[in-house]
Fold:
Amino acid sequence: MATFLGINLFGLSGQLLVGLINGSFYALLSLGLAIIFGLLRIINFAQGAIYMLGAFFAWMALQYFGINYWAALILVPLAVGIIGVLMERFLLRPIANEDHLYSLLLTFGLALILQGVFTQTYGSSGLSYAIPESLKGGTRLPFMYLPNYRAWIIVASLTVCISTWWAIEKTKLGAYLRAGTENPQMMQAFGINVPLIVTITFGFGVALAGFAGVIAAPVYAVSPEMGSNILIVVFAIVVIGGMGSIGGAIITGLGMGVVEGLTKYFYPEASTTVIFLVMVVVLLVKPAGLFGKEA
Amino acid sequence: MKINKLYLALFIFALIAPAALYPVFLMKVLCFALFACAFNLLLGFVGLLSFGHAAFLGTGGYVTGYLMMHTGVTPEIGIICGTICAGLLGAFYGKLAVKREGIYFAMVTLALSQLAFFFYLQAPFTGGEDGMQGVPRGHLFGLIDLSDNMSMYYFVLAIFIFGFWMIHRTIHSPFGQVLKAIRENEPRAISLGYNVNDYKWVAFIISSALAGLAGSTKTLVFQLASLTDVHWHMSGEVVLMTLLGGMGTIFGPLLGAGAVVAIQNYLSGGEMGNYVSIIMGVIFVVCVLAFRNGIVGEINKVIKRNFGS
Structure:
């Protein structure tokens, strides 16, 4: 029952689940990066640090103010989004007309500062955040045991990803955003406040990372390092998918999580490197990325 | 003529510096200065931001460290092999990275260097988290004992001058002129018939080989090759050195490396050690917001303003 063609289905489905969960985080983070890149043409190097910030905010909210998980799920992305708005308005706006490499370096500096501050305050060992009461326990499926919280991660992140995709493709605000991606000057000429849209977009993209941080808090140790390692993987995923489409970012994120999970089962030694290797292959075969538009 | 006097003054300073300053500190500055100069060849003169140069520094270091420890070759052979290996890795990584531009280039190089990081973390010969410790310095050409810090210093100085001269020659060659043309206006360079990607690729190989040379030398100086050298933090540090000193200037990376190493040495001694990362981050932000030309860039501007044309 539990084996098929010599494959241990129990172990395989377990790794697939881990892969889907990692993929959920990859999808949320690369979606945030893609939205920001679409309008601002910059890469937010602090996205990983913001994800870490989201997890820490959730932990601090519970520890110091007794704010529970469900409230944190709303409040933390909001707080992180406001930080993002301030970041865009006061740090990135002044250099918006310079070479975009400078904004990369600026956000890299911010990431170092954030990571340093939290290492200084809380140490690098990591803090634990309890799974909320209502999501404890799990379900026994015929081929595996499914912890409820892990199922929730996948549901929550997919819901957020799909509603973001829907909002961008189907609503009026989304239409502004897409128009701004195509031709900001023209949109400004039509009397739309482009700088405001830019600020909101940046805040939203950053809030997605904050949201990912909150749902990550109960499954990973809340530590200052948690952001930087995942970010580099997400960069590789962004290169694999290309930043052409919002849907592409979501699909590539989830897909690469699954690829990583499968590798962990079949050849564990390569599980940390497989996404980078996929990136190498994609660069050789289709340099613009799977969903990329440029030549 | 003015420049030649400056070179001469620097050279004399470098010759007598160990009398006043701790030689190991000076060697560290020289190694990082060479690393930053190699990096600056790409960023300052071709306009390519590589966020993965630590991979080449580390590769040079590990190869030299391994050869010195297990095969008993002389140091110059060890360094040459380290440099060649870093150059080969650069040829492979560069071929992939030049397919993308701008911000993508930075992300591709960062991801590729992370690939190297995980390789060295898992490979059996690198000693994993501990790194290679106690690498012997050996006898240069089988004759000069490098375990003496003074002879090691002059050896490192000679290597630095060689690397610096290589970069200088590259920048001022017809090849270097094409690189600058690519930086200024890539479509124009293409329309003039230059195969832009090949030029970028060759520049990438030169830059990575010299970064490997810096890493090989650094391993001999500290008798240690560790994961710190391949970590993305190191890639960030070299960007900071170049940005602080002034990208696209000849002396900027030298000055920037000196400043960053001095700051790190100063901080790591005291109770401020844990603040290094925060302070590096603050310098990044300040440089980008207020100080984009770097130290040398600002000095050049002042000179131009006050002394005409």
